[in-house]
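Tutorial sheet, problem 5. The two components below are modelled jointly, 1162 residues in total.
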Amino acid sequence: MKVSLNWLKDFVDIPKKLNPEDLGDLLTLKTAEVEAVYNQAGSFDNMVVGQIMEILPHPDADKLKIVKTSIGKINLKMVCGGSNLREGMYVAVAKVGAKIRWHGEGNLVTLEKAKIRGVDSEGMICAGSEIGIDAETEGLPRENDREILDLSAIKPTPGTSLAKIFRAEDFILEFDNKSLTHRPDLWGHYGIAREVAAITGGEFTQLTPKVKIPAKGESPKVKIEDYLLCPRYCGLTINNIKVGESPDWLKKRLISTGHGVHNNIVDITNYIMTELGQPMHAFDKNHIKEGIVVRTANSGEKITTLDEKTHTLPGETLIIADHEKPLAIAGVIGAKNSGINEGTTSIILESANFNPQSVRRTSTKLGIRTDSVQRFEKALDPNLAELAIKRAAELILQICPEAEIAGPITDVGKFNKKPLKINLDTKKAALKIGVKLSTKEMADMLNKLEFLTEKRVDNRLAVTVPSFRATKDIQIEDDLIEEVARLYGYENIPVTLPSLPTRLPKDNPERFKKHRLREVLSYGLGFSEFYNYSFYGIEEIKNCLLEEKGHLKLLNYLSEDQTHLRKTLFPNIIKNLQNITRYEETARIYEIGRTFKDIGQYYPLEEKQVTGAILIKGKSDAPFYEAKGVVETIFKKFSLPKANPVNEIPDTPYAHPVKSISYIDKHAQTLARVFVLHPAVSKNHDLEKYSVAFFNINFTEIMKLPPEEKKYTPIPKFPDIKIDISVLVDKETEISKIETAIFNAAPQLTRSAKLFDIYQDDNIGKDKKAVAFKVTLQSDERTLTDKEMVSAQNAIFKNLERIGGEIRGK
Amino acid sequence: METQLKNLQSEALSAIEKTKTPEDLKSLEVKYLGRKGELTQILRGLKDLPPEEKKKAGQLSNSVKKTLEDVLETKKAKLETAEIEKALKKDFFDTTIPGDARPLGHIHPLTQIQEEVERIFNQMGFGIMDGPEVESEYYNFESLNIPSDHPARDMQDTFFIKDKDDGKHGKMVLRTHTSPVQIRTMEKYGAPLRIIVPGRVFRYEATDAGHDTTFYQVEGLLIEKDISLSHLKGVMAEFLSRLFGKPVKVRFRPGYFPFVEPGLELDFSCLICDNTGQREGEDCKVCKKTGWIEFMGAGMVHENVLKAGGIDPKKYQGWAFGFGLTRLVMMRYAIDDIRLLTNSDLRFLKQF
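Model answer (structure tokens):
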């Protein structure tokens, strides 16, 4: 929200020593965030009006022109690309040293003498956006792309400073609207002035409109159907109106606070809103049939609003109507049918209070956001309505002296007039803030903010909340504590550390294990951690052979590739791989993240998953075995009960149907999977030239498993014997079968059998493979003799031959 | 003979001293101590001496022999070492070939900073909590004192889930902040409580270098019988100083968040310009010459929030805060595009 310093000064005496920037800082520290303070004049330094004398072509650029421009006594030669240049046109000229924003973007830059495509340019002819001027607000022709600001409508004398043209003698404080969300009283200059008075000690001047309201005469008839939706409605009829242009001072104030200008009546209602924070509306009385009714819309009722859009109103919309038709959407926007135009001679002024939730709901439903909505939704003080209508009447009479107030103000409604009282425990307040403050000191601060205080007992204050703070902002004791804390100064609160009893923090083993897992994966196994979005789109679902079913879908989304919540980490990781192949030929990556699965209840099944991939160029089975190794290492590292892999892979359509395994626990819960990419999925992602295998661990599930306790086993006392065994078997004999044959031969002595080679070659037979194991034999009781070794070896040979093996080198 | 022996010794020592190669040393050894060497030659005259002198000369000759042997031995060792070193120096060995490290993977920078944050708060007695990323409107808004039709809903643009809406939970949303975990943790553990919640949050807003739909926050919550805003300043100053490894100042400004009252914003002193707003004679670009970095929203937990969590606001009070982990990571590593963090490139990740 833009606030004019000059306007504030109507109501508060700002201490002289406080310059505008300091005031901005002070407000930021005590009240609400002032994002910037603009000096209107300063921003126009070195900028003057120019008149184009002659336009010459640029020798080297079609779209650029050399423009001779008079800026009073001298002419400047400038290069300009404006598409609306014409001789005689009045333009905004930035001279060397002026600060402008190139094409209205980025930071301010100081203009220097420059050569543009080889031609000297002694300044710049500006577009409005380059010097912070919005042409339309200034009543100037709108600029299209590549056009420059056209000042011809004003016909100013060339050489006149732009600051003068744009009436720049004010300072504008720009508030962050979010920081005002809870302060309905700060949505106008009057309220901010009151706040400035409280924090600077400057004197505040109450507004008392000097206007005579006749005791008798014609008043608008107003009927409110539901006081909950409309707690107060003030109406006033004014006749003999002459609609015309507003005076300069009024336009200037509206423009500098970011409002458009229309005609004197509409401008006055906007002026009141900007001054007091109370939105107002003026109806053309001649278009109103009988009286005003404040009611909810009949379902399907239609209204064409001032912006010429037609809306079908939902049943609960609060509207202002006459006895025939809707005249306005209450607190949101007026209808075109009863708006003020040049022919208007009589008006009905509306200054009302509407239910904040209702206004907001309507605004959201219809998608109409106006300055009025912005204020009503904050919960305005119903008392403000009366002050505002009087102030409006005062201004109308000032600007149209011939206007006549037709009769008394109609004031109907029902709202709580009893002041809100809250007890403040000052001792508790001091404890919460963490400073020593006496009851009296707190009372003084609250008094500055127009809260009345009454000391009850020692640490108790009975506080009466002023009506303009009592609608929403101040409701409970803590709200008063906030007032004390900010007036005392948040910056003055000391920095202290609490002395709290020693307590072990709440434990979260899962999170710490997740960090350890990352260390194993990244620093042990050489994988890099990726973070991906929690979404993907329908195309990715298809490309990964997934089904849409089971996915949560976003109601509102930003792009077509982010429409569904991820049910698996896989689709985004395969995209990562696809990107990586643009600059790498191998990759080892993983992600730890949440997946979401619709299981027919309100909450989805939200699981933490670990998914990783190994990608290498060319054809190879190695990635699969590496991925399998990763899973087994992790199971071992985390002391998980041994889970045996099975050759099935449920719910994994993107996996190769044969080159895949899953680890399943005794409750048939899939704990982990290892798989080679399905060839179709590989093709969909242009990965056919690569070998890719994935591992996936359901982290949520493995965390449920009781870890096996680690126990020390004595280091063997007797030496072991290692024998190498090479066996020729059928190509399709599984290694696990050979392993079993070895172990079963001499179970007491066989400590391990490690596969170290698989060899295939036409010389040994097309359907054969040679497999080599290193077998370790050992006894706990004695050193093995040669005889025992030979006998174990023979037993192994025999077992291997039994499964069709042929011992090599026997 | 005595003189002869002494002369021999000094002559030999000087010769050994001058020797430069093991070969020369060997011939010296033969010359003086060999079977036909000079010492033997001298000793041949021994038998002609009277017994007393014989004894004396005998002793002297042994001593000379011993001395020469020792010196020879030492010199030999010295020459050999020198020889080896000389030989080694002739070797060519390229030490500039890059080190052959075991290939390590990389942990995402967000995780790294998150773990650092967790460790510091854990040391101050804060537990690390988690909660669902897909939340109900109740936990994300209502329970945090943000009723529907409240303007504060505009402060957080929200993703909604299709076809998920019931009377009990309201609409289903992607959590817009980590604050719902405040309520969930209060419900689970009650007071007193000291936790932080690092986690992924979502906003329905167009992305650019500074904004993304997905980012990370750290929520903090401390509930005790006696805890103040002054303590919040203390804990945050301590945390930031430890995180940045140098003293950091903090300041409060008023701020509005419906779930706290009083509500405030916390800034910390700009580390680039040392809180001065000026750097090398120019306005500091990092803090935009204010000397302060906007860091987080915070405040005393609103009594409605305590009540929603089942905690009696008459018995307990507390503060809560929430800061952007993503922003912290961007500041720490001077990352200028937020999207690099969630849509990563391996070439980016390898830098961490």
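Marking note: Chain A has a mean pLDDT of 93. Full credit if you identified this.
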